[in-house]
Design goal:
- The protein is mostly helical.
- The relative contact order is 0.17.
- The protein is globular and about 75 Å long.
- The protein has one domain.
Length: 367
């Protein structure tokens, strides 16, 4: 089953590598393979939180999310959000920002760096609120705490949604103050961080409002509501993946950072190679998430969902931290793997395996 799920992504990867070799040359093919491998590695981490979201969707929305939603959402967020951020931040024409991203990656990279504080603040507050859903157990789901009594107490607080908003607002306010102190309260530095943080909270509330409306019953627009609910999930996960790749670890964006320096590869070639690698990563992410959902992995491995949630919490904190001090790319590239790996290891039935092993060794003696 796992082989069949990965057959299509593997064939697409090989075909695109061959196409890049034939059209753009071997340097482009090697650059594509390197970027695709990085995208696939990060997709393996992202598939766990994606599966957690899929498990909360009703069947029609789940099928849409696992088939088309993840691929479309990741592609849209990875490819369109950077030009959109530049267009909003610089008050320019969106079409001009997209054109610049493709034909002038150096200038686009500089413009993206200018709006990065607002974008990072936006992502941090939004992602923290997504993490707070687990931390304060807003759904009041029955679960076993992964990190002990403190986690259990936080999951049992009264008014969990209020606590979520309070902690997110505190994060926005604290970061804005620290940035203000660090920059002598320069409006050009403080205002983008504060506005970006408030916008992130607002976007989260709007997304959840749409999701709540979509789950309403007894409507002639039920099919539209299914799509609306799925779209909020796609937006949420697409934003998380975008922030993980683009803002902190500096992996390829349309700015050309992933393929710059490849001999003989122009701006259009760089954009094509990068977009193809992003597409491969999105396809692998969708397939891995579908496999994890079908195998009920989050139910069997009881702490895996907790690990996925804490990945989001750490990502939000790192985004806020990156507004004050540089965050090493190696740290960002591996923290998710460490957290997910720890959750996986603690979920495995080690004691049961030991008991069965002892029982098998003792059986011949008793006989």
């Amino acid at each position: 089953m796992a082989r069949s799920l990965l057959t299509v992504p593997l064939l697409v990867t090989v075909a695109l590598a061959a196409l890049a070799w034939g059209v753009l040359g071997p340097a482009a093919a090697f650059a594509f393979v390197a970027l695709a491998l990085l995208e696939i590695a990060m997709a393996a981490d992202s598939s766990v939180p994606m599966a957690g979201i899929a498990g909360r969707l009703h069947s029609p929305a789940r099928r849409l999310f696992l088939s088309l939603g993840i691929v479309a959402g990741v592609l849209a967020m990875r490819l369109l959000l950077p030009p959109a951020a530049v267009a909003v931040g610089d008050a320019t024409d969106p079409a001009q920002a997209v054109t610049e991203a493709v034909v002038a990656p150096g200038a686009f990279s500089a413009h993206l760096q200018e709006v990065r504080p607002a974008l990072a603040a936006f992502g941090a507050s939004f992602i923290w609120l997504v993490f707070a859903e687990y931390l304060f157990n807003t759904d009041r789901a029955s679960r076993r705490s992964w990190l002990g009594r403190l986690e259990a107490r936080l999951a049992a607080v009264a008014r969990p949604r209020v606590w979520s908003l309070v902690t997110a607002t505190a994060g926005v306010a604290l970061t804005s103050v620290l940035v203000g102190v660090d920059t002598a309260w320069a409006p050009a530095a403080v205002v983008p961080v504060a506005v970006g943080g408030v916008a992130g909270v607002t976007a989260y509330l709007v997304s959840k409002r749409v999701a709540a409306w979509a789950l309403g019953s007894g409507s002639a627009l039920r099919s539209w509501r299914v799509h609306a609910h799925a779209s909020t999930v796609v937006f949420e996960r697409g934003l998380v993946v975008f922030m993980l790749f683009e803002i902190l670890d500096g992996v390829y964006s349309l700015s050309g950072s992933g393929t710059s320096g490849v001999d003989g590869l122009g701006a259009l070639g760089q954009a094509a190679v990068g977009a193809a690698a992003i597409g491969v990563g999105a396809l692998f992410l969708a397939r891995l998430t579908s496999r994890l959902d079908q195998a009920a992995g989050l139910q069997r491995l009881r702490y895996l969902k907790a690990g996925a949630a804490y990945v989001l919490g750490v990502l939000a904190v790192l985004l806020w931290t990156s507004l004050l001090v540089p965050v090493p790319g190696v740290l960002v590239g591996w923290f998710g793997t460490v957290v997910i790996g720890s959750a996986l290891a603690s979920s495995l039935p080690w004691r049961a395996w030991v008991r069965r092993s002892r029982a098998r060794r003792a059986a011949p003696r008793s006989a």
